[in-house]
Design goal:
single chain, about 425 residues, five-stranded antiparallel β-sheet, two-stranded antiparallel ribbon, 14 helices, binds adenosine-5'-triphosphate
Amino acid sequence: MFSQDACFFHRQLDEMSKSKHFFQNLLKPFTSSANKDQQEDDLEKIAAKEQKNFSFEALVAATKNFNQSQKLGEGGFGPVFQGKLSDGREVAVKRLSQRSAQGKKEFLNEAKLLSRVQHKNVVNLLGYCVRDAEKLLVYEYVANQSLDKFLFKSNKRELLDWQRRHDIIVGVAKGLLYLHDQAHCTIIHRDIKGSNILLDDNWVPKIADFGMARLFPEDQTQIHTRVAGTNGYMAPEYLMNGNLSKKADVFSFGVVVLELISAQKNSSFDRDPDSGNLLEWAYKLYKKQRTLEIMDPVLVSSADMEEVALLVQIGLLCVQSDPQSRPDMDRVVVLLSRKPRHLEEPTRPGLPGSRYRRYRPGTTSSVTGNSDVSSSGSFGSTNTRTATSTATGTTSSLVKPRLDRHGKRPVID
Ligand SMILES: Nc1ncnc2c1ncn2[C@@H]1O[C@H](COP(=O)(O)OP(=O)(O)OP(=O)(O)O)[C@@H](O)[C@H]1O
């Protein structure tokens, strides 16, 4: 990922190319703090001109003073309210919880950076607001609900026929590719999952919560560290060793693909007693050339079976244990857009058990699980708490990690 300064610089370039301040700003050295302040003032002005810097009063009015009736929900970062701006725009206002010790300037820098992120498949961040300890983000309002609400929480999943599910997968892949490689600054999402994929009234998927790690950095001094992902979606190497790369997002994307096709939630999978989780089940059936058995029965009438099989294989490639074997999003988008003549054979998915330290009651030592699962060699974590949370949501024989109420981890106590 680019450093904050690099991103700041990129944003500056972007900004400058459109602005008559270009040459003025170019002449300013970045090192002087007086000049930095001046630059920030300039950015404030540009932001105000672009109406990205919302006044607190405007957001109070838009949300009827953050009235409970306006509340859309509450995630790990704080509550989200529906609102209407005085110019008629429908917005979603995220009121960040005040646990982060991040300063105003840093927050504003990151928010400004992220408000330049614009893609059809990414929720548009319209602006932000800081007032004393209050930090708010203003997003475009996305009218339909999040993907998980259609897929898991009701009988609404019939509304998601094959074409829609296919298009959602393609849209999310394009949104992720944009965040990884095409935005002005590399953004690793870290929390791709159904509830962070919002659907608009035309079923176009939009990735939400991007860049939250930048806006809400972990604060080591706090009791509750900022969550870094959600159980069931996190890549093993990230979960075990904190190795964060774009491939961690690819893994989460693969989980979402398999969930969309099967309508089974990885973190609470109980469909097949012989498979600990959705990924293992899908892989097992794939190896037996019974791939289509993972398909949600609701899809039988609408699905193109060849496409289903292809997407399962792509999903399995994304969740492979070894991050280097996973395709990058560029390749995923290519694979999705035209039927590949040749597609690699997926190796086993990132599974719990391999070189994961198992808990033995009454001891603090551990034993190693079956060894044919991991090819990445990155699972030998010595941190029992970390090592026992699973990327696939199965923790039965392992020490249960403490998750917060959103299924996020870690919560340190
Ligand atoms: N731009 C938006 N438009 C419409 N609804 C939104 C928007 N952003 C968030 N929401 C809704 O607000 C609720 C809370 O969202 P938020 O992203 O804070 O948490 P979450 O995704 O449910 O959980 P987590 O923080 O664990 O990812 C969700 O129900 C989501 O659908």
